[in-house]
């Protein structure tokens, strides 16, 4: 909020600045100028000295508005009658090469693994699939140890975490890390015991169930509450089982959002693309994002110029739980950063510019406000 100066107080209460300054000096014994700032309590007290009751009304800044939109979305302050079912967001986590992308690929029946450099997931891919008329949003994450932050991000945007463990290998360092992220995020966890088609895999199952228990994931077959589904991304064994397990969880939790509000969500990845400007993959978590919306994400802002779905098709709008690629931001946001649609572009600009100034470390210099204590220290 802007500081209260003697000048602005003078203008607000219609008492001459000279009078205010004189009284202030009497009260504090300090030299003051017309630009001396006061905190709210001090301003209220000083106004009272002149018989004026000062009410401080705070206008919502653009940054406040951004925060409020996210908070509303989180708190689902929206009246329940506005909430509508949305697809669950399922993140695939696990150790490198345990078959996360292959499993998702089997589910999507497209070939994403082949197009990746060396088969290692470099970024978060997000897709929506439809199974028996029900949609599920999947977020793929890299298992490589260099990508801790991305796994954390994945766990934070998700409703359900599928922890993939290769049956020929078992619980590995990044499996443990994935479990920790999912637990910290407080989301439902399902284990996919993958590569079950490999010879000897079945023989490892008991050991791995023990390893999972040691990590605090007690499998249902051991009396716990963690479903462990045997899968193969090669033969497709267990994939339907996995989808059914996810559907059951989604039925129990009835994930909901309000499509009729300004969109909020999270950036999963972003880059500058030759000729297209900043391209960001975002996950809409609440509200509906539309072409033309004034959006802020991290230090970037702009009007949404175009929206593309997970198959690269141009779309006009994207509702809750939809992963979507957007163009139109003027700066590349960091993955994991929240986005929100503001009322107009000037507010979006204001938020982005405030953040840029802040991150540049620009400081207007230490201004020491007069507080109630030093206002009365002489009395
Ligand atoms: P990162 O993204 O690098 O962490 O790996 P990932 O977990 O996505 O593993 P990916 O799907 O790329 O698979 C790694 C290798 O395991 C590939 O060669 C796959 O063909 C193979 N693979 C994945 N799932 C299975 C499976 O169920 N059975 C068998 N036999 N091989 C599998
Ligand atoms: Mg992968």
Automatic annotation (TrEMBL):
The major lineage groups are: Bacteria, Pseudomonadati, Planctomycetota, Planctomycetia, Isosphaerales
Where on this chain does GTP bind?
A: 94-101, 140-144, 194-197
Residue stretches making up the Tr-type G domain: 85-256
Name where it's found.
Answer: Cytoplasm
Q: What is this protein called?
A: Translation initiation factor IF-2
- Annotated organism of origin: Tautonia sociabilis
What this protein is reported to do is described as: One of the essential components for the initiation of protein synthesis. Protects formylmethionyl-tRNA from spontaneous hydrolysis and promotes its binding to the 30S ribosomal subunits. Also involved in the hydrolysis of GTP during the formation of the 70S ribosomal complex.
What family does the Swiss-Prot or TrEMBL record give for this protein?
A: Belongs to the TRAFAC class translation factor GTPase superfamily. Classic translation factor GTPase family. IF-2 subfamily.
């Amino acid at each position: 909020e802007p500081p209260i100066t003697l000048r602005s107080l003078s203008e607000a209460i219609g008492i001459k600045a000279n009078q205010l300054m004189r009284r202030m000096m009497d009260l504090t014994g300090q030299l003051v100028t017309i630009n001396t700032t006061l905190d709210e309590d001090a301003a209220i007290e000083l106004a009272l000295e002149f018989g004026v009751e000062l009410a401080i009304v705070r206008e919502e800044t653009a940054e406040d508005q951004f925060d409020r939109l996210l908070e509303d979305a989180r708190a689902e302050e929206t009246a329940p009658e506005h909430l509508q079912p949305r697809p669950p967001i399922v993140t695939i986590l696990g150790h490198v090469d345990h078959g996360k992308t292959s499993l998702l690929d089997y589910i999507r029946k497209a070939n994403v693994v082949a197009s990746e450099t060396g088969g290692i997931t470099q970024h978060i891919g997000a897709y929506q699939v439809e199974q028996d008329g029900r949609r599920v949003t999947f977020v793929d994450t890299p298992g490589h140890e260099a990508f801790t932050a991305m796994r954390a991000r994945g766990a934070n945007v998700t409703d359900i975490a599928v922890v993939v463990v290769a049956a020929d290998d078992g619980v590995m360092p990044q499996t443990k890390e994935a479990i920790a992220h999912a637990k910290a995020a407080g989301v439902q966890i399902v284990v996919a015991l993958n590569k079950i088609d490999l010879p000897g895999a079945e023989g490892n199952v008991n050991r791995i169930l023990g390893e999972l228990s040691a990590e605090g994931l007690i499998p249902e077959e051991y009396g716990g509450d963690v479903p462990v589904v045997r899968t193969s991304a090669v033969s497709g064994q267990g994939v339907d089982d996995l989808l059914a397990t996810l559907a059951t969880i989604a039925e129990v939790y009835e994930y909901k959002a309000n499509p009729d509000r300004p969109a909020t969500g999270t950036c999963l990845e972003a880059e500058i693309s030759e000729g297209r400007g900043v391209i960001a993959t975002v996950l809409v978590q609440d509200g509906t994002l539309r072409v033309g919306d004034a959006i802020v994400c991290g230090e970037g802002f702009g009007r949404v110029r175009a929206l593309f779905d997970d198959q690269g098709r141009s779309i006009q709008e994207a509702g809750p739980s939809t992963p979507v690629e957007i163009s139109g931001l003027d700066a590349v946001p960091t993955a994991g950063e929240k986005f929100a649609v503001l009322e107009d572009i000037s507010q979006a600009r204001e938020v982005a510019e405030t953040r840029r100034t802040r991150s540049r470390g620009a400081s207007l210099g230490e201004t020491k406000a007069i507080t109630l204590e030093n206002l009365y220290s002489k009395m």
